[in-house]
TrEMBL record:
This is Aliphatic sulfonates import ATP-binding protein SsuB. PANTHER family: ALIPHATIC SULFONATES IMPORT ATP-BINDING PROTEIN SSUB 2 (PTHR42788:SF19), TAURINE IMPORT ATP-BINDING PROTEIN-RELATED (PTHR42788). SMART domains: AAA. Belongs to the ABC transporter superfamily. Signal peptide: none annotated. InterPro entries: AAA+_ATPase, ABC_transporter-like_ATP-bd, ABC_transporter_ATP-bind, P-loop_NTPase. It holds the Pfam family ABC_tran. SUPFAM superfamilies: P-loop containing nucleoside triphosphate hydrolases. Residues 12-230 form the ABC transporter domain. Keywords: ATP-binding, Hydrolase, Nucleotide-binding, Transport. Its EC number is 3.6.3.-. GO terms for molecular function: ATP binding; ATP hydrolysis activity.
Amino acid sequence: MRTAGASVPFEIHIDEKRFRGADGSSVLAVQGLSLALQPGSFTALIGPSGCGKTTTLRILAGLDHAYKGEVHLPADTRIGYVFQEPRLLPWRTVDQNVRLVLPTPDANDPASLYAALGISDMTQRFPTELSLGLARRVSIARALVIDPNLLLLDEPSTSLDETTAQKLRALILEVWLGRRTTTLLVTHNIREAIQLADRLVLLSRRPSHVLAEIALDTPHQERGEDFIEAKRQELMVRFPETIA
Ligand SMILES: Nc1ncnc2c1ncn2[C@@H]1O[C@H](COP(=O)(O)OP(=O)(O)OP(=O)(O)O)[C@@H](O)[C@H]1O
């Protein structure tokens, strides 16, 4: 459902989401999960593997309608979705992949995005010529080129080595600080969440619901190693079932 108004939150309420298991049985994945994203905020959704984080993103993005509940989005909502796998078309160049989501290829100029994401010199390459880290950057450019007002990031640093992951996190933060696009990051990496988000939403094990919401008011530039580690340990003690 789309409601009027530019500064109203993006809201999702999942009363119940079930999947059909391999043996035909019905598996309750999410139960009673409510989330409101304030415009300009950066929320990290954290929870154990298989608790329903990706499912929640898909429902919010309108990719899954088979659930009980409601999604309320402002009328002008434009969603940029960075999937766990980059999902680039192998027969198109980087630039063509990014422009593909525009109404016409020249509707927006991605040059400044390429520069911000450090991929300006590879726009004529094909996806098979890119490392996973670079392909992720391209998929972020593709999500941002439509000027979304809601950005969904599904495990953007997963399967990357730590140095590449850290570079990507720095880029994500720089882009967010510059644009303040409302962002929902799904991650099982608590350190990443503490580094990037201004609010943590912790989910329970399946069937998942919100266990706790934690505001992170410390400015990003003051979140050094010590801060991140201290916060992680504090959360591990308070929420051992979610924070590994
Ligand atoms: N298409 C599907 N068919 C059957 N079960 C599914 C399907 N998609 C997800 N599930 C199940 O629903 C639950 C939630 O899945 P989901 O992918 O949302 O979890 P997640 O928290 O994103 O996991 P991860 O951290 O491992 O990516 C899991 O138990 C998963 O096995």
